[in-house]
C-alpha cells in the first residue's frame, strides 16, 4: 500500500533542522545522524501534527508559513538542539 498522506509539520521540521545545523550558530553542536534524528523527534513531539493528503498539503503549508508560526516552530527546534546538545545519546 502506497502512503497517500504526509505530515506537513514533519517536512518543515526536517528541512529547518538541516538548515539550522549547517549554520554558524550551531557548528559546535554534534550534527551526526543520531543527534539530528533526536532533534527532529524532540521537536515533533512538541509540535502538533498536520497530516494531509496531497490535495491539502499546499493549503496547510501556506497556513503554517506565516512569520508568527515560523518563529513558534523555530523556537521549539532551537530548544531541541540545545537539549540534545546537552544530553547526546552517543
List the SSEs and their pairings.
Elements: E1 5-7, H1 8-22, H2 33-45, E2 51-53, H3 54-64, H4 67-86
Antiparallel strand pairs: 1-2
Summarize the structure in short.
This protein is mainly alpha-helical and 90 residues long. The protein has helices at 8-22, 33-45, 54-64, 67-86, and strands spanning 5-7, 51-53.
Structure description:
- There is one protein chain.
- This protein has 90 residues and is mainly alpha-helical.
- Helix content is 66%, strand content 7%.
- It has a two-stranded antiparallel sheet with strand order 1-2.
- Helix 1 crosses helix 2, helix 1 (8-22) crosses helix 4 (67-86) and helix 2 crosses helix 4.
- The longest helix is centred in the C-terminal third of the chain and has 20 residues, at 67-86.
- The model has no long low-confidence stretch (mean pLDDT 92).
| Parts with pLDDT < 50 across at least 5 consecutive residues | none
Helix content: 55-70%
Q: Helix/strand-derived class?
A: mainly alpha
Helical run tally = 4
Overall geometry comes to globular
State the major sheet. Answer: 2 strands, antiparallel
Rounded to an integer in angstroms, the radius of gyration calculated over CA atoms is 14 Å
> Would you list the SSEs in sequence order as H and E?
EHHEHH
Average pLDDT number: 92
Strand content: 5-15%
Strand order across the biggest sheet? 1-2
How many strand units?
2
* Cα distance spanning the termini: 35 Å
Amino acid at each position: 500500500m502506497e502512503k497517500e498522506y504526509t505530515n506537513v509539520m514533519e517536512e518543515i521540521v526536517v528541512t529547518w533542522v538541516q538548515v539550522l545545523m549547517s549554520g554558524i550558530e550551531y557548528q559546535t553542536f554534534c550534527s551526526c545522524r543520531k543527534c539530528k534524528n533526536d532533534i527532529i523527534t524532540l521537536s515533533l513531539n512538541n509540535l502538533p501534527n498536520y497530516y494531509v493528503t496531497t490535495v491539502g498539503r499546499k493549503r496547510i503549508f501556506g497556513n503554517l508559513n506565516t512569520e508568527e508560526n515560523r518563529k513558534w516552530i523555530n523556537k521549539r527546534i532551537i530548544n531541541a538542539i540545545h537539549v540534545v546538545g546537552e544530553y547526546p545519546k552517543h
